[in-house]
Amino acid sequence: MTPSEKTSLLRRLAAEIGFDRARVASATKLDRDGYLRGWLDRGFHGKMEYLERYYEQRADPRVLLDGAKSVIVVALNYHQSPPPKPDDQPRGQVAMYAWGDDYHKLMKRRLFLLADRLHEAIDQPFETKCCVDTAPILEREWAARAGVGWIGKNTLVLNQGLGSYFFLGEIVSTLEFAADQEATDHCGSCTRCLEACPTEAFPAPYQMDASRCISYLTIEHRDPIPPEFHQPMGDWLFGCDICQQVCPFNRDVPEAEAFATRPPGPFPVLYELENFSQEQYRTTLTNSAMKRAKLPMLQRNAAIARSNLKKPH
Ligand code: B12
Ligand code: SF4
Ligand code: SF4
Fold first, then answer.
1. Contact (CB, 8 A) for 299 and 224
2. Looking at residue 32, what is its pLDDT?
3. Tens-digit pLDDT profile for residues 148-174
4. Is the pLDDT of residue 6 over 60?
5. What is the reported pTM?
6. Which of 89, 106, 252, 296 has its CA 20 to 30 A from that of 65?
């Protein structure tokens, strides 16, 4: 089988498994890895110390998997049209990526299935390593190289047909697939996301100071949230979607087939969460992406959101 026949096979198998896109990049050292070093040196990662570890793997997938030749990048749409708020109780907002079941499990299951199908169909020994989110790999950089989409000014990967509400996953492989073309940037003169960010988390286009991002503050930051961010956080309880909501490429995007909304849903009642016991937290959020935040963090976020909802606008 030639490398381009392998890439066609990969695309067919990935579509059968339910991925919305599957593209390939050649596994080489990243030429923009110096950007990661500068980003960490400036402290833009806040307290996400795990991003400082395995630098060599992040910069070069051949360190992650010895003999790697290709990085397969898949995208899975999670977009759902937002429902209206159910009533006028004080409710917080949850970012769309966490409305359904935890994506890590579903993505991993599908990636392993894809790797197995490739092994069955290709009569040749090769190794694979499946990665989603937590693996030391710069997923957006690989998605851009493989042509899944371009990295927008809001630092997310955007695709002209899918917008940006999709998850990324990778299979690093020692097998050579024909590489796809790198995506081109379509942001043009638009600056909507940069202007809309309430915490001014973009020091420049294509750059994020994650320590200022509501997503970081509500999900990753375990200490008290600095008061300067309280008011700009508005009613965001877990994550933030503002720089995606304003993006013109997210208009008229398809609805996701996976990730049906589950409790506590897009707009949890704030005082209910504030009064959750550990047991209620465990049972309500089992298998939810929201479990990434410990109960005291959710309660901290809920208290800030509730106080913001009380203030006159
Ligand atoms: C840490 C992290 C965060 C942090 C920091 C985000 C950030 N911008 O770095 C926080 C907690 C803030 C966060 C928030 C969110 N995240 Co997040 N996050 C990650 C994680 C785990 C690592 C990212 C990382 O390594 N950052 C370090 C910086 C240096 O990397 P980088 O910005 O990618 O830099 C590279 C490129 O930008 C490029 N580059 C540098 N300069 C330039 C200039 C130009 C012009 C270009 C083209 C490229 C370029 O070079 C750099 C080095 O290679 C990834 C998963 C992964 N393993 O990659 C998910 C990931 C990026 N997150 C994801 C999601 C869904 C989100 C949220 C939407 C969740 C939410 N709704 O709350 C928000 C979006 C906020 C935003 N606008 O980015 C998805 C993004 C999917 C997509 N379509 O792009 C990912 C890929 C997870 C996944 N598997 O699906 N996240
Ligand atoms: S997710 Fe929200 S806080 Fe973070 S950069 Fe985007 S708009 Fe700003
Ligand atoms: S809002 Fe505009 S600048 Fe920002 S990512 Fe979307 S197209 Fe690019």
1. no
2. 80
3. 999 999 999 999 999 999 999 999 999
4. yes
5. 0.97
6. 106
Nearest alpha carbon to residue 265 among 285, 245, 248: 285
CATH topology of domain 3-42+53-81+102-173: NADH Oxidase (3.40.109)
Cα 177 off chain centre by: 25
Report the candidate in 180, 112, 196, 175 with the shortest Cα–Cα distance to residue 143. Answer: 180
Going by C-beta distance under 8 Å and a sequence separation of 6 or more, which residues neighbour residue 138?
30, 33, 36, 58
Give pLDDT tens digits for 228-260.
999 999 999 999 999 999 999 999 999 998 888
Q: Is the dihedral of CA 147, 149, 152, 154 positive or negative?
A: negative
Return the domain boundaries, the chain.
3-42+53-81+102-173, 192-253+261-310
Per the listing, tokens 């950007």 go with 35
| Mutation test residue for ligand 1: of 39, 131, 165, 215, the one with most atoms within 8 Å of CB | 215
Q: Give residues with Cβ within 8 angstroms of 79, minimum separation 6.
A: 96, 162, 163, 165, 166, 250, 253, 254, 255, 256
Give nearest CA residue, ligand 2 atom 8: 197
Q: List the residue whose alpha carbon is closest to atom 6 of ligand 3.
A: 247
pLDDT in tens, 88-113: 999 999 999 999 999 999 999 999 99
The span from the CA of 8 to the CA of 121, in Å, is: 12
For 220, the 3-state DSSP assignment is: helix
Measured from the Cα of 246, ligand 3's closest atom is 1
Q: Check whether the bond before 264 is cis (ω within 30° of 0).
A: yes
CA 158/CA 37 separation, integer angstroms: 24
The one-character DSSP state at 90 is -
What's the rounded Cα separation, in Å, for the pair 62 and 183? Answer: 22
Report angle CA 80, 103, 111 to the nearest 5 degrees.
115
